[in-house]
Amino acid sequence: MGANEELRRGTAPELEELELELLLEALVRRLGFDFRLHERPPLKRKLFDFMQQRGMATLSQLQDHVLHDPATAGALLRALHVPPASLFDDPAEALMLREAAEHCLRGAALPRIWLADCAGAGQAWTLAIILAEMGLLAHAEIHATVASDEMLDEAASAWLSEAELERTQESYAQAGGRGRLADHFQLQPGRAVLAPALRSHISWAQYNLVTDASFNEFNLIACQRALPDFGPLLRQRVLQLFHDSLVPFGTLGLDRELDPAEPFAAVYQALSPGQSWYKRMA
Questions:
Q1: Closest by alpha carbon to 114, among 145, 91, 93?
Q2: C-alpha to C-alpha distance for 216 and 233, rounded to whole angstroms
Q3: What is the value of pTM for the model shown?
Q4: How would residue 73 be classed by pLDDT, with cut points 50, 70 and 90?
Q5: Is residue 6 pLDDT above 80, yes or no?
Q6: pLDDT value at position 10?
Q7: CA 253, CA 111: separation in Å to the nearest integer?
Q8: Which residues partner with 141 through β-bridges?
Q9: Class for domain 91-280, per CATH?
């Protein structure tokens, strides 16, 4: 029996389900965040991990803290959303970003990229460095949206230690990086921050994929880290949102391959076999 199960062993399954529904309703009505259409297994795993870290035995106890303690509420929202990414933490994803950028940004007068439910500064900085090395950043706009003001603050204050920057050099090279990663950074005593010339092309905003509408047209949309948590109905809503926001011949990066039965699947063509990156053909 794991630690989470040990902590909750006195709660009947039907009562736990009721507690979960009440907690999710509280998050909507009190904080405006709707997780009711998220997949239950990953959602429960995140909730129970959070409870274990805080020494809470029941979802009802967690709900009480969420309703009366803003610090706990903010920490829970952060735990339920996309975890922060490290710089070049996924070389395979970075290589596909390079390929996708080549397909849809080269030749565009004002390339716009949307990192939907962005995994923080690490993911946005990775893309900015890739575009700079491809000669595509000068006229590009990277729109990085996150779910909460707390995550905006994290992105605004992000930095790396010089040791972290050195350790990331290998991942950067595996992702097709050329030269020294440190050349893209402004080195300060004990820390490194993305150079202002690159950082100026990233716009950060709070945005809720569950409730907000399309806000621009984009040449490239990437959302690979949040989608696995979405249930079928929410996934379809978000795919519709992305379709409405993507220009013809733009590129869409998802968490998995499109099912032929999914809306608009017929107008998307995979960039590479077995990959979940698609070019909109109409």
A1: 145
A2: 23
A3: 0.92
A4: very high
A5: no
A6: 58
A7: 16
A8: 112
A9: alpha beta
Angle between helices 59-68 and 13-26 (to 10 degrees): 20
Token pair belonging to 184: 């893209």
Amino acid identity at 102 = E
Q: Residue type at 35? A: F
- What does the domain layout of the chain look like in residue ranges? 3-80, 91-280
CA-to-CA distance for 59 and 19, rounded, in angstroms? 6
Residues 6+ apart with CB under 8 A from 244: 214
**Quick count: other Cβ atoms within 10 Å of Cβ 238?**
20
The residue type found at 232 is P
Q: Return the percent helix, strand and coil in the chain, to nearest 5.
A: 50, 15, 35
Give the pLDDT score at 112. Answer: 98
Query: Does residue 147 register a pLDDT over 70?
Result: yes
Element (DSSP H or E) covering residue 242? helix 232-245
Length of the chain: 282
Tell me how far apart the 2 most distant CA atoms of the chain are, in Å.
Answer: 62
Q: Are 64 and 100 in contact (CB under 8 A)?
A: no
> Residue 262: what are its φ and ψ, rounded to 5°?
-70, 150
Answer positive or negative: Cα dihedral of 76, 157, 126, 258.
Answer: positive
Spatial distance between the Cα atoms of 1 and 145, rounded to a whole number of angstroms: 39
Decide: residue 155, CB within 10 A, 0-12 exposed, 13-18 middle, 19+ buried. Answer: buried
Tell me: the pLDDT tens digits for 154-196? 999 999 999 999 999 999 999 999 899 999 999 988 899 999 9
